């Protein structure tokens, strides 16, 4: 089946630094990738939708200058948390929609636990 | 707009007992429905999905769900749970003919006791 990987799985960084999270579709091409944020005991909050080769579409309330998303190829999207602060600590999950698929299923990555100290 | 309601935030159950996790949605158009499972510190894994056809859908790990259009529900069931089924379960809806971006319910924590 379709596999999505994320790297790193866990990251601890100091306040004020930037962190990059990678999301890769390993055995399929993904025209669209999604970035979610999940707080403890909460559901997934969609942050942005990224299409290969174009700018990401951010959900209301998500700062695009703080959460930089790049979807440079059909198998890779990156989320960079710039000038991270403790309130950015969260579980970040990406998902990918297969290019050749019907459009109605997403494949999720294993998530990245970000802790900002 | 569509919304998803998971009525129970937590469902405790004993091992080998049956379980039902409830999900209701609101949408005025056709929908695709999904159930995902999330184990601690992991991403989401697809359990099953309803796209069209038979309203009873069977998924992995012995789970099944029934699409009920009149009641706008898609409840998840398992006749006999195991300790290993302890996890968070999310119901999701995609509106047909739209942007194919899913709306997730808030999740139900299934806790299986020995």
What are the defining features of this structure?
heterodimer; A: 117 residues; mainly beta; 7-stranded mixed sheet; globular; B: 114 residues; 6-stranded mixed sheet; 4-stranded antiparallel sheet; 12 strands; 0% helix; 53% strand
Structural overview:
The complex is a heterodimer of chains A (117) and B (114). By secondary structure, chain A is an all-beta fold. Chain A has no helices and eleven strands. In chain A, the strands form two sheets. In chain A, strands 2, 4, 5, 6, 9, 10 and 11 form a seven-stranded mixed β-sheet that branches. A four-stranded antiparallel β-sheet of chain A has the order 1-3-8-7, with no helix packed on it. In chain A, a hairpin with a 5-residue loop joins β4 and β5. The mean pLDDT of chain B is 91. Chain B is an all-beta fold. In chain B, β8 and β9 form a beta hairpin.
């Amino acid at each position: 089946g379709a596999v999505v990987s994320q790297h790193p799985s866990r990251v601890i960084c100091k306040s004020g630094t930037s962190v990059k999270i990678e999301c890769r579709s390993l055995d399929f091409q993904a025209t669209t990738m999604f970035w979610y944020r999940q707080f403890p005991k909460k559901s997934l909050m969609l942050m942005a939708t990224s299409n290969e080769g174009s700018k990401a579409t951010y959900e209301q309330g998500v700062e695009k200058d703080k959460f930089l998303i790049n979807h440079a190829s059909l198998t890779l999207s990156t989320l960079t948390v710039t000038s991270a602060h403790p309130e950015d600590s969260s579980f970040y999950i990406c998902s990918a929609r297969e290019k050749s698929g019907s459009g109605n299923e997403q494949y999720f990555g294993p998530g990245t636990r970000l802790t900002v100290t | 707009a569509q919304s998803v309601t998971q009525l129970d935030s937590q469902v405790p159950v004993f091992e080998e007992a049956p379980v039902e996790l409830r999900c209701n949605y609101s949408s005025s158009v056709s929908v695709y429905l999904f159930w995902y499972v999330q184990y601690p510190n992991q991403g989401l894994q697809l359990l099953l999905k309803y796209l069209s056809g038979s309203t009873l859908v069977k998924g992995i790990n012995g789970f099944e769900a029934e699409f009920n259009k009149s009641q706008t529900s898609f409840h998840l069931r398992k006749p006999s749970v195991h300790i290993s089924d302890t996890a968070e379960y999310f119901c999701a809806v995609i509106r047909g003919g739209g942007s194919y971006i899913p709306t997730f319910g808030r999740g139900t924590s299934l806790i299986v006791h020995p």
